[in-house]
Amino acid sequence: MPIAPAPPRLTxxxxxTIAYHKTAGKSPGVVFCGGxxxxxxxxxxxxxxxxxxxxxxAYLRFDYFGHGQSSGTFADGTVGRWAADAVAVLxxxxxxxxxxxxxSMGGWIMLxxxxxxxxxxxxLVGVAPAADFTERLMWQNLSPxxxxxxxxxxxxxxxxxxxxxxxxxxxxxxxxxRQHLLLDRPIAIDCPVRLLHGMADPDVxxxxxxxxxxxxxxxxxxxxxxxxxxxxxSEPADIARLAATVEDLCRQVAx
Length: 255
Prior knowledge:
CATH class: Alpha Beta
Number of strands: 10
Radius of gyration: 17 Å
Mean pLDDT: 96
CATH superfamily: Alpha/Beta hydrolase fold, catalytic domain
C-alpha cells in the first residue's frame, strides 16, 4: 500500500507546525475544525473534502497543535491555543469568505474564530457543538476525587470509549478554558448558523445546542435533531446530511 505524502505545514510564530490539506475551488470556501483529540483524517473531515471537491468548492482541513500530524504534545494544548491555530489557518491559508464547520470541540473553536474574524466568516455549521465543554460538560460533572487529583497532580487520565488510551485532562486545560467561555452571555455572531445534533449523544447532550442557540445573536439559526444519532454523527446518512447542509449554506451566503 503506497505511503501517503506528508501534508504541507504552516509554521506558527513559536516554531510549531500545523499540518493541513487544502483544495482550491470556488467561494465561499469551507474550513473543517475537528474535535477534542480528533484529527483531519477522520470520517467527517475527509467525506466533506470529497463533497466539496465534487462541488468544485475550496476546502481546508487541518490538525490543531498536539493533534494528528501537527507538532506539539496534546497535553500541552489549550482551547486558546487551538482557537489561535484555527484563526491562523483562516488568515494564512484561505482567501475570501469561509463557512466553518466545527465538530464537537470544533464547534467551540469555530465560534471563537468567527468572533475573531467576523469579516471572513460567512456561515457556521456545528456538529454536536461543544462550546464551553471544559466547564459545563467536564469540570461541573467531575467527582470530588477527580477534582482533587487535578488540583494535586495537574492532570487526570480520563478513560475514553473512542481510544484504548486514556485522554490526559490537565488542570491548565480547565483553567485556560475559562478565559474563552461563551454561553454565559450573548454571542456577537450575526452570520447564518446550522447545527446538527444526535439525540442519543452520550458526550454532548442535545440540549447543549439549545443553550448555544439562545446565546447566539444571529436570528438565522436552525437546529436539526437526529433521534437515533450518536456523538460522532458519522453514519452514511449523517455524512450525507452534513454535506447537504454545508453546501446549502454555502449557496445561501454566495447568493
